[in-house]
Amino acid sequence: MNLDLLGWRQEFDPYFYSYQQQGFQVGRVIEEQRNLYTIMMGTDTKVHVNVSGRFRYEAANKRDFPVVGDWVIYRQVNQEEKGVIHSILPRFSKFSRKSAGNTTEEQVLAANIDTVFLVNSLINDFNLRRLERYLVMARESGANPVIVLSKADLCDDVEHKISLVQQFAPAIPTHVISVVNRQGIEALDVYCQPGQTIAMLGSSGVGKSTLMNCLSEQDIMAVGAVRAHDGLGKHTTTHRQLVMLPRGGMIIDTPGMRELQLWTNKQVDYNFQDVQSFAVRCKYRDCLHQGEAGCEVERAIQSGQLSAERFKSYMKLQKESQHLERKENEREQLKQKVKMKKLFQSIDRKRKRF
Ligand SMILES: Nc1nc2c(ncn2[C@@H]2O[C@H](COP(=O)(O)OP(=O)(O)OP(=O)(O)O)[C@@H](O)[C@H]2O)c(=O)[nH]1
Ligand SMILES: [Zn+2]
């Protein structure tokens, strides 16, 4: 059993030890499909598992359920390739978002990621504010951020853009790539070493699937197709998965991670605590900081305590997150509608048969 290749860390040992004594096994979740999990326990041993009834009962929150990347303690059923998950080992990093339709529940999307590629294209998509947002998400997750600037072959002021990025985030490793002429791909190998887990963040169309296919040397993801209007995306596989790379690393791609650019208002507030610290002192609780009397935010900008640039970026993200939240709600409603319609159709069909 070679758990190291799957990303096992020594710090997990003490957690697993007592379980091991009781005959439990440990494996890593590589795929999730409607609460059915595929886990790996060696590089070529797969087991299909479910969570135990007790686990389900005790999980108070979606956050408590296993996700791709998790290390889980399970008991194998007889000698079969089946088992039951008993518990999850502590995550050293995780990406999560608010679940749709609920304002408080956290939904974890992927766990135990070492490196996250923040993919920005050097052409249309290039945007330092968005990069700032991804950096904050990466910091929150616990994974190490790496900036990947894609589609170099289409850009004719690469040097200028690199210098902008380096000024903006001097401490973050930055790579320029083009999948078309394989520029910069090999330099990404250092992150794809055996046992290392990677994930990607980036807007639609920046080339995440293309890069993933390139790194995995196979066509896992459908590339370039127009997104479906049902909001489910255009993946060849819609479930959440972890893919082994030929160099030994692993890459996690889940539909949810792709939509992680959806920021909740709460998250915006959380990441702009400097702005918040003034906003809470505004005279009116619903102050929009746009010329109202007793606005502390505007006063702070005037006195130089808060940069106008920073405030502008805060307002922009606020607006964006409200818009996205609205859109997400609409999408949920649409999904419900489609579901209901199908249900009624099937009832209708049954009726006709009688
Ligand atoms: N010229 C050029 N085109 C690229 C490069 N990488 C990706 N593309 C193209 O960009 C388009 C979008 O690429 P995808 O890989 O589907 O983008 P994505 O980020 O996975 O998009 P979503 O799945 O919507 O999140 C495709 O037409 C690719 O062929 C590159 O390095 N150079
Ligand atoms: Zn105000």
Automatic annotation (TrEMBL):
<keyword id="KW-0690">Ribosome biogenesis</keyword>
<dbReference type="InterPro" id="IPR012340">
    <property type="entry name" value="NA-bd_OB-fold"/>
</dbReference>
<feature type="binding site">
    <location>
        <position position="287"/>
    </location>
    <ligand>
        <name>Zn(2+)</name>
    </ligand>
</feature>
<dbReference type="InterPro" id="IPR027417">
    <property type="entry name" value="P-loop_NTPase"/>
</dbReference>
<feature type="binding site">
    <location>
        <begin position="150"/>
        <end position="153"/>
    </location>
    <ligand>
        <name>GTP</name>
    </ligand>
</feature>
<feature type="binding site">
    <location>
        <position position="289"/>
    </location>
    <ligand>
        <name>Zn(2+)</name>
    </ligand>
</feature>
<keyword id="KW-0963">Cytoplasm</keyword>
<feature type="domain" description="EngC GTPase">
    <location>
        <begin position="111"/>
        <end position="258"/>
    </location>
</feature>
<keyword id="KW-0175">Coiled coil</keyword>
<comment type="subunit">
    <text>Monomer. Associates with 30S ribosomal subunit, binds 16S rRNA.</text>
</comment>
<keyword id="KW-0547">Nucleotide-binding</keyword>
<dbReference type="InterPro" id="IPR030378">
    <property type="entry name" value="G_CP_dom"/>
</dbReference>
<feature type="binding site">
    <location>
        <begin position="202"/>
        <end position="210"/>
    </location>
    <ligand>
        <name>GTP</name>
    </ligand>
</feature>
<keyword id="KW-0862">Zinc</keyword>
<comment type="similarity">
    <text>Belongs to the TRAFAC class YlqF/YawG GTPase family. RsgA subfamily.</text>
</comment>
<feature type="binding site">
    <location>
        <position position="295"/>
    </location>
    <ligand>
        <name>Zn(2+)</name>
    </ligand>
</feature>
<protein>
    <recommendedName>
        <fullName>Small ribosomal subunit biogenesis GTPase RsgA</fullName>
        <ecNumber>3.6.1.-</ecNumber>
    </recommendedName>
</protein>
<feature type="coiled-coil region">
    <location>
        <begin position="314"/>
        <end position="344"/>
    </location>
</feature>
<keyword id="KW-0479">Metal-binding</keyword>
<feature type="binding site">
    <location>
        <position position="282"/>
    </location>
    <ligand>
        <name>Zn(2+)</name>
    </ligand>
</feature>
<keyword id="KW-0699">rRNA-binding</keyword>
<keyword id="KW-0694">RNA-binding</keyword>
<feature type="domain" description="CP-type G">
    <location>
        <begin position="102"/>
        <end position="260"/>
    </location>
</feature>
<keyword id="KW-0342">GTP-binding</keyword>
<dbReference type="InterPro" id="IPR010914">
    <property type="entry name" value="RsgA_GTPase_dom"/>
</dbReference>
<comment type="function">
    <text>One of several proteins that assist in the late maturation steps of the functional core of the 30S ribosomal subunit. Helps release RbfA from mature subunits. May play a role in the assembly of ribosomal proteins into the subunit. Circularly permuted GTPase that catalyzes slow GTP hydrolysis, GTPase activity is stimulated by the 30S ribosomal subunit.</text>
</comment>
<dbReference type="Pfam" id="PF03193">
    <property type="entry name" value="RsgA_GTPase"/>
</dbReference>
<keyword id="KW-0378">Hydrolase</keyword>
<dbReference type="InterPro" id="IPR004881">
    <property type="entry name" value="Ribosome_biogen_GTPase_RsgA"/>
</dbReference>
